[in-house]
Amino acid sequence: MFYKILSVWLFISLYSISYAQNSFQVKGVVVSANTLDPIVGANIIGENLWSISSTNGEFMINNTNKESCSFKVCCLGYACKMVTVRADENKDFIKIYLKQTSTNLDEVQVLAKSKERIQKENPMVSQIVSKEFLEGNRENSLMQTLSKIPGVSTITIGSGQSKPVIRGLGFNRVAVVQNGIKHEAQQWGNDHGLEIDQYGIEHIQIIKGPASLLYGSDAIAGVVNIQPNKIPLQNSFSGEVNLLGESNNDLLGVSAGITSRKDKWFYRGRITYRDYGDYKVPTDKIKYENYIFNLHNNNLRNTAGKEADASIGIGYVSNHIKSETVFSNVNAKNGFFANAHGLEVRTSTIDYDGSSRDIDLPFHKVNHFKITNNTTIEKENHTFYVDVGYQNNQREEHSEPVPHGYMPKPSTTKERLFDKSTYSLNVRDAFEFNNQHHMVLGANLEHQDNHIGGWGFLIPAYHRFTAGVFGYDQFEMNSNLHLLAGFRYDYVWLNTNAYYDWFPSTVANNNGSTSEVYLQRAQNKNLNFKSLSASLGVSYLQNNTTYKINIGRSFRMPLSNELTSNGVNYHMYRYEKGNLNLDAEISYQLDVAIDHTTKYFSVGVSPFVNIFQNYIYLNPTSNYFETLQIYEFTQSKVFRIGGEFKASTSIFKFLQLDASVEYVYSRQTSGAKEGFTLPFAPPLSALFSANYQFKNVFFFKNPQIIASYRITAAQEEIVPPEEKTEGFQVLNMSFLSKVDVFQNNNPIDIRIKLNNIFNTKYFNHTSFYRLIDVPEAGRNLSLSLTMPF
After folding, report:
1. What is the mean pLDDT of residues 315-335?
2. Omega into 362 within 30° of 0, i.e. cis?
C-alpha cells in the first residue's frame, strides 16, 4: 500500500512540474480607493482560479497557464472590479483599488428556525455537544471526553481506550454513529475500545434512551451520533495543528487538519499520531486472586500504546445537491496490563519493567478502515438523504503461547483474530405533508461478514444481514406544541459457521475407553429475529421552560458471542458459553425532560423508567473448565429507574457555576440473579465545576480557570462475582486561554490541565481493570496547543 501511495504522489508531482513550466504567477494587494487601507477577505474569482486577500490585503494566484487571465475582485461594502493581467506584462506586483459602496436591502423576513429551537421542539431527550466543549474538555479518548455529560460514563481500558455507557448500559446497547453510518467493530468485548479519532469532530448528538426507531438494533440505551462537519465557505482555506503532551504516561501527540473549498467542490483531511508509555497509578502493588503484583515506579506495566489515524473527505455542494465522501483509517497497538491476561505472566521471561514505552505480550492490534458517503438531494418539498458505508475492522490479540489443558503450545503469538466487514445503506425521504406535518420515511440495510483466526477460540465466524423500514411524523399542533409518532420493523438473518479445535482432546467413551477427538465448539446455524419498534413523544414550550415526554419500545438482536461463544476468555479469567435459545431484547422506556433557562441561570431534570422483558447477561455457574469458572449467557426481566439533574448560573459576569447529578437504580426481577442489579452499574455521582474568566493579561486573551470536583458514592449494589467499590472524590483543574503571539488574528489556543490533583487512589466501578483491583490513573499534567492557520 505504501508503494502505491508513493507512486501516485510521484505521478502527481511530476505532472505538477510539467504543468508549472507553462504557467505564470499573479501577486497583488487589494486596498480601499478611499482610505488606501488594505482590504481583508476580498474574493478574487476567475475561470479555474480563486484566492482571498490576507490580513494585509495581499493575494496570490498560482499556475495561470494562459496568455492572460481575468478575474473579478469583490468584497462586502465595495463595488466589484474586473481585472485582466497578461503574462508578457512582467508585473511583479499589482495593486487593485476598490471603491466603497452602500447597499440598501429590502425588508428581510427570516423564517428558518435556529438549531436550538429545533432541538427544543424534538420530543426526543438529547443533548448537543459543541466543538468548544470537545476542545475544552478533551481527554485521552472520545468517550472519556464525553463522560462529563450527565448520564454518560465509560468503560475504560487503560489510558487510551474506552467505550460508551449511557445510563448504566453499554457494549452493544449503545449505538455509535459517525457520518450517518453505525460504527461496527468488535464492541461486544469488555476490553475492546472505540476506534474513532476524536480530533476534528465538530458536533455530537447524545440521545439518552431508546432510539431504535431511527437507528435499529443496538440503540436500545441511546446513541452517540457524531455528525458530519459543516460545509466550508466558498473560496476558503483553513487548518489547524494540535499538539499534546501528558506527564502520567509520557504521551506525545500531534494532529493536523486542513479544510478548503473553491466554488462547489471542497475537501478536508486530517492526520493524527499518538505515542504513550505505561501509565502510573497511585500504588506500588496490586493484590488479586491471593497474588501480589509489585509495580515498578508505580507504572501499570505493559499499558503503553501507539495510534496513527488519517482521514480525507471530498465533497460537492450546489443549490440542490450536497455530497461528501470520507475515507478514514484508525490504527492502534496497545499493550494489556500483563497481570490481567492469565497468571502465566508470573513465570514469563519478558522484562516488563525494562522500559515504560515497550509494548510487550500480551497486546492487541486494531485497524479500522471506513468509507462513507452522505448525499442530500432537495427536490420540490422533498429532501432525500442517502448514506452509504463500508468498514473493515481487523483486530488481533497476541499473547505468550502457553499450553492449556489438552492444547499443546501454539507455534505463534496470535491468540485471536477478528476480521469484520460491514456494508451499510440508509435512505430517508423527509417531506412536509402540509405546514403542520413533517414526515420521514426510510429504510436501513446492513450486511456483516466476520471471520476469525488464531489458536484461541471464543466466537465463531458469522454472516449477518439486517433490514429495517421506518416512518415517523412530527406534528406541529401549534407553534409551541409538537407531537412525534413513529413505527419501525426489522428483520435479521444470522448464519454462524461450525468450528472444531485445531488440537485433539481426550474424551471418555461409554465402554470405559478413551478417544482422541477434535472437539466441536460451534455449529452451522441459521437464525432469524424480527421485532417492531415504536415511539410517541410530546414537546411543549412555555416561555423559558421546555417540557418533553417520550415513551418508546426498542429492541436489540442477540450477538454472535451471546448465542454461540464457547471458549476461554483469559482476559476475564473465565470460560464463556453462549445460548442459542436467546430471544431479542425488548425494552420499554418512559423519558421526561424539563428544562428552564433564563439569562442568568438554567436548570433541568430528566428522569426515566425502563423495563426489559428479556435482558441478556453473562451469568456465572457452579461448573468449571480447567480451573476456570463457566459463565453462561441467559435472560431475565429487569426494572430500571433513574435520571439526571443539572443546573448552571452566572452569579457574576466572569464566574459561571455548574452542577450535575446522575443516578441509576436497576433490579433483575426474574432469573438466576433475581434481586441483584446489573454488572458495571454506575453509582450515584455528582460533578461541580466553576469557571472564572479573567481580563486579558499581556498576550493572554480571554484566560479562564476551570475547577471540576467529582463526588462519587460507593457502589454496594453488585452482581456476584463483582465486588463492592468505595466512593471517591477527585479534583481537576484547567487553564484555558488564547495566545496572540504573532498578532495575525489567528491566536493559539492553549490548555493546561491537572487531573487528580491530590493523586487520589480510587476505583471506578465501570472500569475494565477495576475487576482485578487496579485503581484509576494518578496525577496527570497535560499541555495542549491548537494552532490555527
Report:
1. 95
2. yes
The answer to whether 306 and 357 have CB atoms below 8 angstroms apart is no
Residue 188's φ and ψ, nearest 5 degrees, are -75, -20
Measure the CA–CA gap between 704 and 91, rounded to whole angstroms.
49
Q: Considering the entire predicted model, what is its pTM? A: 0.85
Domains and CATH numbers, the chain: 2-98 (2.60.40.10), 204-788 (2.40.170.20)
Residue position matching grid coordinates 485497524:
367
**Strand, helix or coil for residue 388:** strand
Length of the chain: 789
d(CA 308, CA 115): 34
Q: Are 748 and 739 in contact (CB under 8 A)?
A: yes
Residue 648, amino acid: S
Among left, alpha and beta (phi > 0; psi -120 to 50; other), residue 402 is beta
Mean pLDDT of 671-695: 91
| Per-residue CA distances from 70 to 73, 159, 237, 381 (Å) | 10, 56, 22, 39
DSSP state of 436: S
Q: Cα–Cα distance between 284 and 290 in angstroms, integer?
A: 16
Q: Is the pLDDT of residue 175 over 70?
A: yes
Question: Is residue 713 scored above 90 in pLDDT?
Answer: yes
The three cell numbers of residue 421 are 466487514
433, 329, 280: which is closest to 779 by C-alpha?
280
- Look at residues 334, 129, 369 and name the one whose alpha carbon lies nearest to residue 768: 334
Average pLDDT, the chain: 88
Taking every pair of Cα atoms in the chain, the longest distance, rounded to a whole number of angstroms, is 108
- Number of helical (H) and strand (E) elements in the chain, helices listed first: 6, 45
Cell of 598: 433564563
User: What's the rounded Cα separation, in Å, for the pair 376 and 253?
Assistant: 35
pLDDT at site 38: 86
pLDDT score recorded for residue 48:
72
The three cell numbers of residue 437 are: 406535518
Q: Residue 725 — pLDDT band, cuts 50, 70, 90?
A: very high
Query: Which amino acid is present at 687?
Result: L
Characterize the bridge pairing of strands 574-577 and 525-542: unpaired
In this predicted structure, the answer to whether residue 115 has a pLDDT above a threshold of 90 is no
Cell for 322?
Answer: 450536497
Sequence-ordered strand ranges (E) for 518-584: 520-522, 525-542, 545-556, 566-569, 574-577
Cell of 342: 492469565
- Does residue 721 have a cis peptide bond before it, meaning omega lies within 30 degrees of 0? yes
Q: What is the DSSP letter of 117?
A: H
d(CA 203, CA 644): 22
Say if residues 485 and 553 touch (Cβ distance below 8 Å).
no
As given in the structure block, the three cell numbers for residue 137 are 474538555
Contact present, 348 and 356 (Cβ < 8 Å):
no
Q: Which three cell numbers stand for residue 285?
A: 502493588
pLDDT digits 0-9 by tens, 740-755: 876 666 789 999 999 9
* Per-residue H/E/C for 611-652: EEEEEEEEEEEEEEECCEEEEEEEEEEEEEEEEEEEEEEEEE
The per-residue pLDDT for 65 is: 62
Which grid coordinates belong to 247?
Answer: 506527564
Per-residue model confidence as pLDDT tens digits over 503-547: 999 998 988 899 999 999 999 999 999 999 999 999 999 999 999
Q: Half-sphere exposure of 265 toward its Cβ, with a 13 Å CA cutoff?
A: 4
Q: HSE-up of 288 (CA within 13 Å, CB side)?
A: 21
Measured from the Cβ of residue 371, the count of other Cβ atoms closer than 10 Å reads 15
Helix (H) or strand (E) holding 15: helix 2-20
Using CA atoms in the order 757, 760, 763, 766, what is the torsion angle rounded to 10 degrees?
Answer: -10
C-alpha cell at 368: 479500522
